[in-house]
Amino acid sequence: MKYLTMIAALAFAGSAMAVDCTDCHEKIDVTMHTEEAATIATCNDCHDFNDAHELDMDMHTPDLTIAECADCHE
Ligand code: HEC
Ligand code: HEC
Ligand code: HEC
Fold first, then answer.
1. Nearest ligand, CA 33
2. pTM above 0.70, yes or no
3. 3-class state of residue 67 by DSSP
4. What three-state secondary structure class fits 57?
5. Tens of pLDDT along the chain (74 residues)?
6. 65 forms bridges with which residues in the sheet?
7. Which of 27, 31, 47 to mutate to test the pocket of ligand 2 (most atoms within 8 A of CB)?
């Protein structure tokens, strides 16, 4: 899965960027979120993430960590 994520990251590096979260949100406090070990699977423990956004699960595997979001998002 890590390998697939990397391929996807490379594939998107040169094309139109993924959504820029900071267009609508405060910059994510990555340190705090890393300490909480936040992954796609746990966002909903603290946020109404799934209600607000629909994720493409090919791109966003449940074990994807918050630090990895920055590979494609700001
Ligand atoms: C076009 C504007 C827009 C963009 C871009 C956007 N969001 Fe959102 N987001 C919203 C709206 C609207 C909501 C629902 C209202 C709210 O809770 O603020 C929301 C809700 C959320 C929530 C739940 C908030 C909570 O506390 O319940 C999370 C987490 C979130 N977004 C993460 C992201 C991430 C990560 C990105 C970047 C990949 C992103 N958003 C990009 C508009 C946006
Ligand atoms: C242990 C609880 C917890 C988990 C798990 C968690 N967050 Fe958060 N998150 C917070 C807190 C606390 C804040 C700061 C207060 C706030 O803005 O709601 C925050 C803030 C944010 C913000 C900025 C909010 C805004 O509207 O500006 C985003 C975006 C965000 N988190 C995304 C995520 C994503 C994506 C995940 C899953 C990968 C995640 N969080 C998992 C607790 C959590
Ligand atoms: C490999 C690159 C990549 C990674 C890593 C990645 N994303 Fe994304 N993401 C994308 C692309 C490309 C899109 C836009 C296309 C789509 O919606 O499928 C997107 C869309 C989104 C959206 C939808 C925004 C909307 O339009 O509502 C959210 C939310 C989001 N990502 C959150 C995250 C979070 C949270 C993480 C980290 C846990 C993450 N992404 C990691 C590439 C990535």
1. 2
2. yes
3. helix
4. coil
5. 566 666 566 555 544 568 899 999 999 999 999 999 999 999 999 999 989 999 988 889 999 999 999 889 98
6. 39
7. 47
What are the start-end ranges of the H helices in 28-71? 30-35, 43-46, 49-52, 66-69
Cα(18) to ligand 3 centroid in Å equals 6
Pairwise CA distance, residues 71 & 74, whole Å = 8
The residue ranges of every structural domain in the chain are 2-12+20-69
Mutation test of ligand 3: which of 2, 5, 7, 19 has the most ligand atoms closer than 8 Å to its C-beta? Answer: 19
